[in-house]
């Protein structure tokens, strides 16, 4: 294979390739993390500065994957994304305020007849029905119309 030729095809991509973000977002996250404003925010909210090296490494790996199709670089990014996702969801999973449902609520398949009847009685529904029958909408009883031109 030539030096610049991509060596991978779609079937060779990792299963969780959908977790990858555009490369520019990794650079933006790194820039935000390393900026003076970002450092101040980190110090204010956490009490220490965060390590921004992972964002920079993800950006480099993303460019490597984009330019050469290197699946190892993509897998490294995916591993970091899974760690970030697990850390983000950790608080929700460990919280005892909410009870997670095991299935849909009992009224999930409730009868919609009342809603359907109200909808069919509306002016818009009648106009749509007339349009479907005749192909045009006739003037209303009072003859007024709102036209935006």
Automatic annotation (TrEMBL):
Enumerate the residue ranges of region (Disordered). Answer: 119-149
User: Where is this gene product found?
Assistant: Synaptic cleft
Q: Name one Pfam family in it.
A: PANTS-like
As for family, the record states:
Belongs to the UPF0545 family.
Q: Where are the transmembrane segments?
A: none
Protein name per its UniProtKB record:
Synaptic plasticity regulator PANTS
Organism of provenance: Littorina saxatilis
Q: Which domain of life is it from?
A: Eukaryota
InterPro entries for the chain:
Pants/Emi1-like (IPR021475)
Q: What is its main location?
A: other
GO CC, any one term? synaptic cleft
